[in-house]
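Sample A.
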Amino acid sequence: MSTPASPAVTSEKFLAVTSPVTGEKIAEVALGGAADVDTAVAAAEEAFPVWSALTQKRRAAIMLKFHSLVSEHTEELVKLIMLENGKNQTEAAGDVAKGLETVEWACSIPHLAAGRTLAVSGGVTCHELRDAVGVVASVVPFNFPFMVPMWTTPIALVTGNCVILKPSEKVPMTMARVAALLTEAGVPSGAFQMVQGGKDVVDRLCDHPGVGALTFVGSSRVAKAVYERARAAGKKALALGGAKNHLVAAPDCNVDMAAADIVASFAGCAGQRCMAASVLLTIGEQPELIEKVVQTAAKIQMGQGAGCMGPVIDEEAKRRITGHIEAAERDGATVLLDGRSWESAQVGTAQAGGHWIGPTVLRMPVHLRKHAAMTDEIFGPVLCVHTVADASEALAIERADRHGNAACIYTSSGATADWFSRRFNAAMVGVNIGVPVPREPFSFGGLEGSLSKYGEHDITGEGGLAFFSSLRKVTTKWARDPAAPPDAANFGGVM
């Protein structure tokens, strides 16, 4: 798969791209290697002086044109996302819409990056200059084929960097089309490139001395390895890992609102997002809420239409998710809703070869509090429900988790909401919102030092601007007395 924004691929290895819906081959992607990274970096280094010399306003104007082109081609991109990722139509449209929000924010960078100027003493002024890093790389996952690349690419480009993107080899088609739109918008050859591939490509991006900064989004294990390797090579690095998000339901929560939101959180996008709910902690027995959650989730149909839930990305993901359910059930969990039933439901249908598993709700007893289903990121439509005695016990379970990504409190009390919001061990907190994704200009990212984030800064908004730029401080003093009136000497003899 070649695009105007991709270097020539030297490898002769190809990987089949399959539909999560049917399991059928829909495309194939050429897998690049270290040599392709070297080619891309060389092209980026050649493009950088010209691209970075443009004013930020000019680069932002190109990004505004890109925004217009994506809006014009939204239907096409939505179909590509549905085809290669399996999202339903509403989720695929949301993928594009949320990505465009970051593009919009990037268009405002000329107004945000001007820096401060201040007279700090008599005749002395300090001001800030924000420079591009140079050649930067971004490694992105499969779960949001458009939105996650847009977390980094537009901010890095408007700041003046040249970008090398490595999409997931599981979903190469969406960004291949987007690359062509970037070229059409006016991003010159070399300023944005893609290198398809696997671990070899990522390792070379981490090691290459010509790459000044690298971002990664994926599992915690890989995020840690990528961060450490990139930092060892002397570059700026920011790696976002996995999550195990906890939702706490207080006894005074609005049952209908909470149940609908909980289901949307754990089953939306087939649970394949780092902001998905994983564990529901009910303070005290709340049978009405749990019953409502199960009933609501049970109504979700298999498919890609409105209100339906799509498949998980591949057979490996399906086996992993099923394995967690089976282990929990074997060890004493009660299966309140069994998504494994979708396996038999798809027999004889067009989706027979797809990777389908339905919403699953597990009731976890006290002795399974530290079970893998309660502590590991499953990355699928599985919700573990566990009852605690009080708020302190709920908080203790949430704070014991090392992911530090997101948490939510469902309550009708402002005091309860404030108590949990101030104490959760999570960087993104929701009050009656189970997917508390910050919207621009607020930045996305987990707690530093947790399993969800390695490195400084957040990945979007002002955090992204800081990551993809270098801040210089200039202190200026002139010889003449600024209080003296101008004369010929002050102006080189010209008045």
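Sample B, a different protein:
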Amino acid sequence: MNGKKPVVLLINAPSSRAVYKEDRCQIDANELFAKFYRPPISLMILAGIAELAGYAPRILDCPVQGYSFKILKNLFYQLNPSVVIVNTSEQTEREDFLTLRLAKHFGARTIAFGYQASTLKKAFITRCPWVDIVIMKEPEMTFKEVLEGKKLNEIDGICYVDEVTSIMENQERPFISDLDKLPVGSHHLIDFTKYRFLLTGKPFTVIQISRGCPFTCNFCLAPFLNGAKFRKKSVSKVIDEIEYVVKKIHVSTFFLRADTFTLDKEWIRQFCQEIVTKGLRIQWFTNSRIDTIPDDLIPLMSAAGCMIIGIGIETGLPMHQRLLQKNIDLSLITPKLKTLKSSKIHSVVYFIIGHPFDNMNSIYYNINYSKTIPATFVEFTIYVDLTAVDLKHDKKRFPDGLLKKISKKGEVLFYFRLRKLIEIICIIEGYIIRNPSNFLYLLTSSARLLWRYLFR
């Protein structure tokens, strides 16, 4: 099927957890009220590198595709991969190790990258002797050199086992200064029936816009994984990728991924003007920090197809803003959300519950606070205690089971208000009127959300 090209398998391991492994918060999609899966952009970009290096890549997003280890074993047998690379996380450590062990059993060269591999480094190889190479932090240029056959002792940014079974750690690789050097993600390898935007039912894909964040939030992995320096693709590079996806892949909804999308105001202006000028009929959503969203550009963003902005407020308590080093001026929140809403851009506001500074009073304060701000949607996400995050506080956390119940209660209190129910119904009705073919999807997705309210 792939001729003589050696096969590279790029894998999110089989797991009951659907962790957003590119995400700085490492959220499990199953824990979100508005559960939906994202195409695995890290694997897509690495697949693009593999194609340029003369390999035949295949992306296996096992939690989303419903692939068990039995199915994965059969795929290894059928495809006989020469290289297997696995994206790793703390939450899926056991499954990641099992995948690497299975790949090694079939004779593949095994590579691990992602948060867990980058954190443990040498210890990852000690605990998982079936991995040949660990790529630390930003993987693309390192992966390229591995596939090109460069000697391991000459490749920055890896740990590996040498000829005498010693574990070696090379010097760290600097972050990529010019993101335009990254290839276009291999969108053509994705089964878009598995990735649909929750509000419209349309398939969507992900484009990496920028990396790095200069803010100092001490619960966030962005500085560890992507650095503090803000790096962005050129407007022309992003527009070219959008046009390619629209024309060749026939997908017109995008998640524009960035640590802080609206950090460069002039970039946003040029990007949105280019979309409008070219008449690109696309829809997109992104995430940002509320105090970087420029009021004067919000109407232009809307005209360019922006539908939703995800905004991490985390807490409505000034003291916790300082302790988490989020440092948002809370007085900005209501007027900014109103400005977004007036331009028909929806907001998803995220709160973190169960972090080390939380107690029952602060958790319920945030639940009540959420009802006072004009957010379109909210999510109460459970704090994930990650090794690379040090809040310098040893207070015992709440049990996850209790936090899940509180999160559900917060969502019920936010959404099951007459005004909010009417607003949501009007939003759904508007999407149905604009595209009647979405009626069945929106009906079933609404039913699934109600089911999650009742039984999650």
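Observation for Sample B: Residues 7-169 form a domain with the Rossmann fold fold (CATH 3.40.50.280).
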